[in-house]
Amino acid sequence: MPRPKNIAPTYRRHRDSARCWVKGKWINLGKWNSPESKAEFGRIVAQLAAAPAADVAPRHRSATATVSQVLAAFWQHVQRHYCHPDGTPTSEQGWYRDSLKHVRRLYGHTVAAEFGPLALKTVRQAMIDDNLARKLVNARIGRVKRAFKWAASEELIPVATFQALATVTGLRAGRTVAHETAPIGPANPATVDAALPFLNRHLRAMAELHRLTGMRPGELCRLRLVDIDRTGELWTYRPPHHKTQHHGRERAVMIGPKGRAILEEFIAGGRVVDPTAPLFSPRRAREERFAAMRAARKTPVQPTQVDRRKAMPEKLPAEVYSPIAYAHAIADACDKAFPLPAELAPNVGETRKAWLERLHGDEKDAIKAWRKKHRFHPNQLRHLFASEVRRNHGLEAAQVLLGHSRADVTQVYAERNFGLAAAVALKVG
What does the buried/exposed string (b/e) look like for 310-321 if buried means 16 or more CB atoms within 10 Å of the residue's CB? Predict the structure, then answer.
């Protein structure tokens, strides 16, 4: 068994000078056994303990670091910082990966200290040329700024570099060639009702519960019985991990009688599950589907077909639904509930690749418009819940039930009650 590596540096002598080995290179500390060299060694040890990913070399070397080197150090910080308590990465890692790829491609070879506002605007223009929407461009440029802010805090670049980047303002609506995206509204209740029959038992219960509670898709996918307080008439679901947990905020999802009935029916209709396991599981959904097919079989089961499962399968369905898989399942259900018109749908026996190749621009736009009208996203169920609560019970109730700390965030999800405004205007105007 090889000896484990010693991560902590040691004070070494090389002729008349002192040095230490850190991250694959020697760092000169000064004259051997001098107070200055021991002080520099103490600084390196303390800095490695506080920030293992930071460059411990003397500060004058930060002026020669390239953009790629700074982004590589920042990515190590992203992998440590943006992760759940169980170690799984959050979605923010993917957002940072997409936001920084233009910077690395255009300016990765340049000196990071020389990356200024004009360079940032060049990166922004590259994003616009890739047909990204204005809001998405602003969000990605904001992450680029935060990357250089972190680099300045770690003394990888001068603070003046980040201060100069902070002067670049975001793109304004109507004053840029970047296209706008339509605001996300609530789901159409008729579309939701039409898609539910095309979802399996797990996904259908998820969508119905989502509509009644307005919880975040990630909270819904990780729902466990052990996290639900079922002592009273009103059940309370407290997710162990949620979006604002790192801010020290508590999250509580209220489940009323309708949502409680859905959960009780779901639990009673299937096998007894482990309270610590995810309540909704694609793996158990597949087992239930196979069991139903076996029960509906009319011919006797052959002895060789009693159990055809592999002892060590290469791939199994996941134990828990991801928000992306949940969204894809809803999109497929909407497509089954609202099939494309005959003139736009693929021909019988035609492959998807051949179908896409024969479509022209107008037909692709028509398909996109059809699906936009007859589809909904899981987050739109949250919007639908927020709009109904705000319309019937006010903005404050919607804010509390959605788990927002500020009412202005809730207004993004909850549609304004223009009907009430019109009624008031008729009376006072």
Answer: eeeeeeeeeebb
